[in-house]
Every structure is written in C-alpha cells, then in structure tokens.
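Methods — Computational structure assignment.
A single polypeptide chain was analysed. Its primary sequence is given first, followed by the predicted tertiary structure written as structure tokens.
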Amino acid sequence: MQITAQQIAHIVNGSIIGNPEIPITGPSKIEEGTKGTITFLANPKYKDYLYTTEASIVLISSDFIPEDPVLPTLIVVGNVYQALAILMEKFNSGISLLSGIAPTAVVASSAEIGENTSIDDLVIIKPGVKIGTHSKVYGQVFIGDNVTIGNHVTLFPGVKIYHNCVIGDRCIIHANTVIGSDGFGFARDEEGNYKKIPQTGNVVLENDVEVGSNTVIDRASMGSTVIKSGAKLDNLIQIAHNVSIGNHTAIAAQTGVAGSVSIGSSCIIGGQVGIAGHLSIADGTMIQAQSGISSTIKGPNAKLYGSPAIDYQNYLKSYAYFRKFPDIVQQLRHLQSTMDKLSQNNK
C-alpha cells in the first residue's frame, strides 16, 4: 500500500511540516527507519533518532519542538499513540480468512452463526453455540456447548472456550488462550486426599475486552468470573475462579490473580504482579511490576510497589535507604563506638 503524507494527515487529523506529496509504503521503528516508511516519536527518550532516522515521515506531538533541523516530513498531531493506532490499521493485513464456513470446520446443527461471520479450517463448534454477525473464528478454535459470542468478535488460532461462557461484542482473544477452564477448587478429606469441587459457573467477557495469547481465565465455582467492558489483558496471565475485573482495567503479562478477587475500574497492573485471594482493589489503583498484593486496597488511585506492596513513593525512599544500609550500619557502629568512649571518659 502506498500513501502520501497529505493523505495520512487527513486520516489522523494532523498538520504537515515538509513535503505533503512524499509517499510511504509501510511503518518502521524510528531507530531503524528507511526511505519510504513512516515512524513516530512519542517517548522523549528517542528524540535523538529524529535527527538521524532515514524514515520519510515522522509523527510527532504538537507540544514537541525540534532542537535541530529535521530531514523527514513531519505530521503534527495532538496524541501520537492515538494517531498511530488509527494509522496502523491501514497497514495491518492480518491472517487470511475466507468468508463463510470452511469445509473442514465441524459445526453442530443446532449452532447459530450470524451473517458475515467466517469460520476457518478445523474449528469445532458444539451444540447450542450462538455467534453474532461479522465475527472471525480462526483455525483450530474450540467453542464448547451453549457458548454465546457477540458481534465483531475475533478468535485467533487455537483459542478454547469452554461450555456456557459468554463473550461480548468486539472482543479479541489471541492464540491459545483458554476461557472457562476449571477453577482451582479442592477439598481435603480426613485422610489428606484432595476431592475436586465441581466448578459449575462460567466466564463472562463483556464488550470490547481484549485478551492476549496463552492467558487462562477460570470459570467460577458458582456464578461467573467477569471481565468487564474495555478491560485489556496481556499474554500469560492467570485469572482464577470468581474474579471480577473492572471496566478499562489493564493487566500486563505474567500477572496472577487468585480466586474471588475484585479489581476495580481503570486500574493499571504491571507484569508479574501477584494478588492473593479474596481481596478488593479500589478503582484507579496502579501497581508496579513484580509487586505482591496481600491485603485489600480501599482508597482509589493508590500507587503501589514492592512485596508486600506499599505506597510507591515510600517504597522508593525505603529502597534508597536499603541500598545504603551497609554504610548506615557502619556509621551507627562508629557512632556507638564514639559514645562508648565518651561514656568511659566521663566515669
């Protein structure tokens, strides 16, 4: 695809500094930019590359002022990441998928498939399934009995959705993710053996949820595990049974959320965070990567770090002292020695 700076500016509602007719055929990273590509500058850490990149066009923010002459054509926008997201859709060809139902798909006669929904090769759709319109189901997806899937949903290759789960409109579920596997529920008998507790609930993904690859969301023991509208989950996340995740909350990779946790809306949770069971996390909470949450967070908009996690600024101060701890101990010992000598001299 070839597109000019003028056309791009129209798409992203930007203004041009430079040649409006310069063409590009695809995107590039700013440090690896080549002629005929478009790149972007959003993080000031990369600003030096603006003066050396060979990319033909660079998206920049309206509040960024170049310090030196710039060779590429610039397209100035209010929000670089937002403009980039709009533009990248133009270059995202995606995985090929023919319209209709592939001949190798196995679709139960009682399943209901909406108009303009495509079912790829080797997909298995069990009885009672309902899939809305304009959805895409890629190869080797398994959809269990009585699953309901909304409109404009994308299920990438290898996704497994267990029975009775509900997927809302415009959800995206990436490869090899499992929705609705059994929660980790067992009871020990008097001999110490584990007896499995049947997990009779389901998983509900509300509208506009995106789930990364190889993430697992367990079904509730009773009721539903719920991922609310607009939530975004990264790859390799474990969500246990009966968890609730609020609207527009984002969780990064390798985070583990134990059973019956309630996470509020608009939270941001870094990678490798661990959250113990039966806790509540208030709206707007921000948790730094590799933190451990072992108690309920009641106040909204808290910023936490550490394991067990404490206030973010307090953690940074504490860690600064911790790094100097050997020197502090040495100073204390020296002070104690001085005090002991003074005490002996005064006797």
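Note: The chain has a mean pLDDT of 94.
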